[in-house]
Design goal:
The chain is α/β, with parallel strands linked by helices and 485 residues long. It has a single domain, classed as TIM Barrel, CATH 3.20.20. The protein contains 14 helices and 19 strands. The strands form 6 sheets. It has a 4-stranded parallel sheet, covered by helices on one side. The chain has a 4-stranded parallel sheet with strand order 2-3-6-7, covered by helices on one side. A 4-stranded antiparallel sheet has the order 14-15-16-19. Helix 2 packs across helix 13 and helix 3 crosses helix 4. It starts with a helix and ends with a strand.
Length: 485
């Protein structure tokens, strides 16, 4: 071979290698958006079949972008192998595009016999949209806003009737499309927070100043009465514009909203935009003020409960426990136990959870982070006190660790499937001092229990379950199945 032919051959061979390398790189490159790939990389397929129990929901496992039928089915299957349910979002600002993407995923979920999961948050915004007709009205007939909720234009709770058809239509557009396509809606949630009637912050003071509010609330100085009226209005808005359009078309659908769940009349947490105002009724606990709460759940038409079990930064300063882990654990278990004890058996509990500390301390400085180990213990106790599954909320920078922690517990718990599906919680007590915490599910003559010690001890702990007693030994990081005597 002469020199020219040799050079030509080398060039051709090099091009072929480069093309092959390019093809291989295309095959190995991630085909999913970064936030979806994080979920796949951070989790692994379940070792134990979850049966027909609810999947794990992750904020990151939402909205994978445009997919064709084949890739949608592949992604839905991959996530389901890990116990994770893929969620589609409805966006009324981009109806056709978000609907097309959602329907593609729903078809794959139906084909695989899985739940169709929807985030309808965008459809409920906004009742208070900045229109002056929704504002409060002072004695001179001038409109004004309640500015105690940040930049949101919070107005008069009695000025929203004309907004109802607009919001309901946003929901119905998507519901009708699913019905027409012969696709189900199995799980649908909204994160509807700073909108509509809310009685906290300085809302009562604004309503006292509002001519229309005074006309509609007979005893406006009584906070209990004020709260009752506003929560009834808030519940009706959610039922008429969101819950009913879904359940009338899909009676079996699980429908709910962030922070709405049955309870004992008190709420043990404050959202990031909320703060206490003197004069509002509360139950004291060390430095904490647990606000009195209206029983709104039955009036919303919701079919699942959604408590919020977050590491809100203010929790750290509420309690004086030297074991700072117990400050977090105590409050968060109170929230979970409150929902577990008061939610009827037929209503699933899908608890929002989060590990990284949320917000900053008013006093400055850093709150000591809840330890990974005790956070996972909390998740176990939640499952043994009525929580059916978790919904993890977190930002993308926090996703790897957040997903890892919750998925480990969820995946391991599936080995106790019969207890999770049929068991009855044995205990909702939360000790006011760090000690031994025991939770469990009773099924027939056996009890699945978890014991977590905040003080080092190997002593047996005896507990009473109905007419029987059991002794629970220390078992670090493990559940136990104990026969009833």
């Amino acid at each position: 071979m002469n020199t020219r032919k040799l050079v030509a051959a080398l060039i051709i061979t090099g091009l072929a290698v480069n093309i092959a390398d390019a093809d291989n790189s295309k095959e190995t490159a991630p085909k999913w958006p970064a936030h979806i790939q994080v979920v796949l990389d951070t989790t692994k397929p379940l070792d134990f079949d979850r049966g027909d129990r609810l999947p794990l929901y992750l904020w990151a496992a939402m909205n994978p972008g445009p997919l064709d039928d084949k890739s949608a089915e592949e992604l839905v299957r991959k996530l389901d192998q890990r116990g994770v349910g893929l969620i589609s979002s409805w966006d009324p600002r981009d109806r056709q595009e978000s609907l097309a993407r959602s329907l593609t995923i729903a078809k794959a979920q139906k084909k695989l016999g899985l739940r169709v999961n929807i985030n309808a948050t965008g459809c409920l915004y906004s009742f208070f949209n900045g229109d002056e007709r929704t504002a409060h009205i002072d004695d001179e007939g001038k409109p004004f806003w309640d500015d105690s909720f940040g930049k949101n234009n919070m107005g008069c709770p009695f000025a929203l009737d004309f907004r109802r058809p607009f919001v309901r239509e946003q929901v119905e557009f998507f519901v009708k499309a699913y019905k027409k396509a012969d696709l189900d809606i199995d799980f649908i949630f909204v994160d509807w927070e700073i909108d509509g009637p809310i009685e906290f912050n300085k809302a009562q003071a604004a309503s006292k100043r509002c001519r229309r509010c005074r006309q509609n609330i007979k005893n406006i100085d009584d906070f209990d009465e004020f709260q009752k009226v506003l929560r009834k209005l808030r519940s009706e808005l959610q039922r008429r514009t969101y819950a009913e359009p879904v359940t009338l078309n899909f009676p079996h659908a699980l429908v709910g909203n962030y922070g709405v769940y049955p309870h004992n009349g008190y709420r043990y947490w404050y959202d990031y935009f909320e703060y206490y105002v003197d004069g509002q009724p509360y139950q004291g606990d060390q430095h904490a003020k647990y606000r009195k709460w209206y029983h709104e759940f039955p009036e919303t038409g919701y079919t699942f409960a959604m408590p919020v079990v977050y590491t809100w930064c203010r929790i750290f300063d509420w309690y004086d426990y030297a074991d700072t882990d117990y400050r977090w654990f105590y409050n968060m278990l109170l929230v979970a136990s409150n929902a577990g004890e008061h939610t009827p058996d037929e209503i699933p509990i899908i608890s929002f959870v989060h590990w990284h500390t949320v917000g900053s301390r008013p006093s400055g400085g850093q709150a000591k982070q809840f330890s990974e180990g005790k956070y996972q213990e909390l998740l176990w106790h939640m499952l043994l006190r009525g929580t059916d599954t978790f919904f993890l909320w977190c930002g993308r920078q926090e996703a790897v660790k957040e997903i890892q922690l919750v998925h480990q517990v969820y995946a391991e718990a599936q080995q106790y499937g019969r207890f999770l599906s049929r068991g009855t919680p044995i205990n909702f007590n939360v000790g006011t001092q760090p000690g031994t915490v025991i939770s469990g599910l009773k099924l027939g003559k056996r009890v699945l229990v978890r014991r977590t010690d905040f003080k080092k001890t190997e002593d047996l702990v005896e507990i009473t379950i109905g007419d029987a007693k059991i002794k629970v030994a220390a078992a670090l990081g493990r559940c136990q199945i104990i026969s009833l005597q």
